[in-house]
Amino acid sequence: MRDSLRQKVIEVCNKKIEQKGEGVGVSFYAFFKNKNDDPELLMEAATWWIQTHELDHFVKAKKIIEMVESGQ
């Protein structure tokens, strides 16, 4: 996953945790606007989420931060 996407994932997850608490779940769609304005980046996130790590649709934001920070 490219660095800019990693940073965005961490930023969005932290914001969701601030807004809704430690138990909040996110999907990879949370990192994008409702428009498909960067399909390559969307596919990169989807591949990381679905194919590489076989994550459920919603995963705790805290877990995603830990995965991204550990380089997974």
Report on the architecture of this protein:
The protein has 72 residues and is mainly alpha-helical. The chain is 57% helix and 6% strand. The protein has a two-stranded antiparallel sheet with strand order 1-2. Helix 1 packs antiparallel against helix 3 (61-69). The chain is globular.
Characteristics:
72 residues, mainly alpha
H/E element sequence: HEHEH
Helix content: 55-70%
**Which blocks of ≥5 consecutive residues have pLDDT under 50?**
none
Number of helices: 3
Oligomer: single chain
Write down the Rg. Answer: 11 Å
What is the number of beta strands?
2
Largest sheet: 2 strands, antiparallel
Beta-strand percentage range:
5-15%
- Spatially, the strands of the biggest sheet line up as 1-2
Average pLDDT level? 93
End-to-end distance: 9 Å
How do you describe this structure in short?
By secondary structure, the protein is mainly α.
SSE arrangement:
Blueprint: H1 3-20, E1 25-26, H2 39-52, E2 59-60, H3 61-69
Antiparallel strand pairs: 1-2
